[in-house]
Predict the 3D structure of the following.
Amino acid sequence: MSKPHIIIIGSGWAGFYLAEYLSTTTYSVTVISPRRTSAYTPLLASAACGLFNFYLAEEPVRSKTRKCRFIKANVLSVDFPSKSVHCAPAFEDDDLISNQDFDLKYDYLILAPGCIPNTFNTPGVAENALFMKNVSDAMAVRKLLFDLLEKASLPNCPLERQKELLHVAIVGGGPTGVEITAELDDLAHKELQDLYPEVASYLHISIYDVAPHILGAYDQKLHEYANEALLRRHIAIETNSRIEKVDRDALYIKGKGRVPYGMLMWVTGNKAVPLVMKLDVRKTEKGLVRILTDTHLRVFKSRDSDEICDGVFALGDAADIEGESLPTTAEVAVQKAKYLVNLFNSRVPMTDEDDSDDNGGGGGAIAGHIAHEAVVATQRFEEEGKQSPLRV
């Protein structure tokens, strides 16, 4: 008798954990993702700035000890009635292979495709900006930074052009934008002063955001602290900035006009991947479009029905629990993945008739587990006299 086939879409925090820990003795596991590695996203900014080698910021899905199948492809659509996924190979530099679509059957489908950067349809961003979603992005940042330093060091480069080349514009005042700003500033004032003594002092960083404050979604004390810390570093904080378009060497900001840059990083947040937009399932109606699930991570068929898609689960940034929304963080993604691993490895996963909160080895609804861990973590930080990281 053949083993039930689980297809995991995505190799991010949730997908990678599932690939690592789902029982391949019980199931045949296939991971489909356009990326053959899983990035440790909190390390990307540091890797981009040279604090350690890039290989430390990612983990390959393929492994001698990981007995799952990996397919480098994009899932274009899902046929829920026939339990099949329609895919295209993910090789942007090979049109012949990329156009050779194929289908795969599943017994269980786990949707964890993540998100993609949100450009807000700003003209020129996709063609000219750098992002920070994976190690390839981090490598591009480091390469461009040192190329700019070398260009500025040429003996025939005028002073004004040196300053333009060494202007790093970071669009997005959230955690990623603030982190990469601080990392680049540290690099400029430490390593680069010795490596590029003639031009390192011209490297300057600006952080832009449409909101009135950086870290505007967080506690007031936190964004005030971050603002003061960056100003002490002589970082230009340009809030209330609406970027109208971008070209290869300048931003165009409403009310300010043209602002030259050497490197533009766009870290303004995420939007749903095309697959999520295409799926005919229940989804959120405001903000980031996410697949809605019940508290057992099962996907609802449609907006007007409480029916569950047979054998289909969703988690990670691309999914949320209806009525018990959780943030798009790595911690939540991994906790949900742990829940599904326990569910699958302990017994046959729930059918749509099984709505019990006590689900064998799975241990009940996921939202309660995450809430419990959040309370425990908060109490521990408060006992240690620290500000809880969960209060944001």
Remarks:
- The radius of gyration is 23 Å.
- The longest strand covers residues 69-79.
- Residues 29 and 54 are 28 Å apart (CA to CA).
- Residues 358-363, 374-392 have pLDDT under 50 and may be disordered.
